[in-house]
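Ligand-bound model needed. nickel (II) ion.
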Amino acid sequence: MKALKIITVPDFEKELRRKSKPVDLNKLDDPELQDFFDDLLFTMLNAEDQVGVNGVGISAVQVNRHIRVFWALDVKKDKPRLYINPEIEVLDSTIVVGKEGCLSIPEVYGMVPRVRKIRVKYFDRKGHPHTVVLSGFNARIVQHEYDHLEGILFTDKMVKGPAQGSKQVDFA
Ligand code: NI
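Prediction:
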């Protein structure tokens, strides 16, 4: 496994704002694509070497590959999950404002409103469909990563709010 280059603003803002295309599930047996999934996770777990912090999520777009793929940590299980062609359905539209950062936006963090609970339909690396219900911080990470697939950055949604909400900032 190897670390891929994480693209950041302002130099790569144009690339970060490009919308990603669905993965062709018939091509999941391509070893290059499978290696890419592993390399993307490796990049997230070793992001500190590149941008000074490690991540709890990373999207393919953040290494300049515009396919609808991201990794997001399940903080309750302490395990990263690969999401391919994810679709989000809102289960609880209550807005929760929480602190976020992004591996592609070094040294910036802010308060971002997200919905409390979502259902995510996605495919795994073998092309099998799955459904998972996420709430709280797990739901926040996935909403942040899904935005990346749409070319949206958390700074677009940032609101002014009390910065004392949480001591820890997590980067995705
Ligand atoms: Ni991000």
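The domain at 13-169 is CATH 3.90.45.10 (Peptide Deformylase).
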